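lol forgot to send this yesterday, sorry. struct tokens for the thing we talked abt
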């Protein structure tokens, strides 16, 4: 790997299989980044524990599913380092050391702290681990000297905090030991679930990358298209139709134009359009599904891939820890 390339790092919490929203919002961007940068992508299982500590079974199961999802869409372990957070113990050591220098007030001010406590009010999130989540995230990033962290806008305050912790560390120990990261905002195209709400596991409205053709068809056919169009003879309004949004992401230019014209002229009905979309999505998902199935049939190979990623990640993390311990006179 060319060491002059900038380092990109990002992580995902393993709380279930990945869906089309993840594909368009995150993975497509990662696929581009892996061609240009020295990328580290990891499964943030310790992060998942901060909210799922009472039901950790889902974490173990999703680790495998997510790795299969990553590989099946084209993340390439020869280009990117793919690893599991809990397999590189340096994350915990660095979190501990950074926690010594992180003022409580900084953590209490992170917006997601209060927001998630309210949103997930069925879980007790008044824990040390949950408050310290952004310190762990800082450790994740700086262990690999990452300069670029692709994230959604909800995560930007975490990266800002990471930058502050890095500055405080470097200034306290009078050395440029840690690298300040920058968030890279991923433009996330609008992708609604068939019920017109944001695609999310908690709404049970996801088109999973691993769904069978039948499941995809059933879900797409259930979609609420254009509420203003009651009968097939009424002209449609593509700009408020979620299936048209799917066309924008999955169809060629010509099809998009044709559907727009035919929908506005009531020359194509919603059911027909949905059937066409189910086909388009199934054609897109077919190779992904095939690859995924093949991968899951060879658990040993998956295991080897992740072991190799863990090893490469550990190599870099261990070097950073040498510098950190020495700066802190340990
Ligand atoms: N906090 C991120 C999320 O909830 C996941 C994450 C953990 C992460 N560590 C990270 C993302 C480091 C980027 C960099 O989605």
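and heres what i got for the seq, position by position
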């Amino acid at each position: 790997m060319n060491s002059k390339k900038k380092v990109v790092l990002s992580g995902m919490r393993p709380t279930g299989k990945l869906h089309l929203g993840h594909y368009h919002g995150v993975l497509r961007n990662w696929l581009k980044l892996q061609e240009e940068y020295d990328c580290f992508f990891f499964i943030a299982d310790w992060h998942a524990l901060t909210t799922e500590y009472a039901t950790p079974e889902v974490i173990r199961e999703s680790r495998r599913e997510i790795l299969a999802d990553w590989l099946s869409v084209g993340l390439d372990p020869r280009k990117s380092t793919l690893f599991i957070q809990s397999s590189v113990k340096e994350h915990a050591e660095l979190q501990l050391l950074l926690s010594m220098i992180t003022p409580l007030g900084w953590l209490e001010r992170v917006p997601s702290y209060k927001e998630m406590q309210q949103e997930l009010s069925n879980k007790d999130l008044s824990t040390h681990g949950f408050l310290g989540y952004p310190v762990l995230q800082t450790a994740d990033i700086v262990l690999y000297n990452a300069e670029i962290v692709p994230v959604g806008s909800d995560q930007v305050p975490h990266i800002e905090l990471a930058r502050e912790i890095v500055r405080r560390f470097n200034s306290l120990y009078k050395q440029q030991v840690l690298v300040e990261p920058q968030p890279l905002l991923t433009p996330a195209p609008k992708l609604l679930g068939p019920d017109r709400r944001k695609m999310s596991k908690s709404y049970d409205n996801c088109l999973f990358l691993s769904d069978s053709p039948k499941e995809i068809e059933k879900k797409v056919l259930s979609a609420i298209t254009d509420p203003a169009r009651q009968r097939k003879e009424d002209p449609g309004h593509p700009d408020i139709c979620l299936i048209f949004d799917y066309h924008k992401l999955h169809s060629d230019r010509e099809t998009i134009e044709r559907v727009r014209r035919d929908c506005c002229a009531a020359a194509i009905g919603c059911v027909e359009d949905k059937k066409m979309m189910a086909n388009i999505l199934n054609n897109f998902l077919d190779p992904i599904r095939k690859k995924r199935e093949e991968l899951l049939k060879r658990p040993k190979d998956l295991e080897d891939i992740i072991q190799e990623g863990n090893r490469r990640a550990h190599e870099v993390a261990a070097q950073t820890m040498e510098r950190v311990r020495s700066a802190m006179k340990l």
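DSSP finds 14 helices and five strands in the chain. anyway ping me if u want another try
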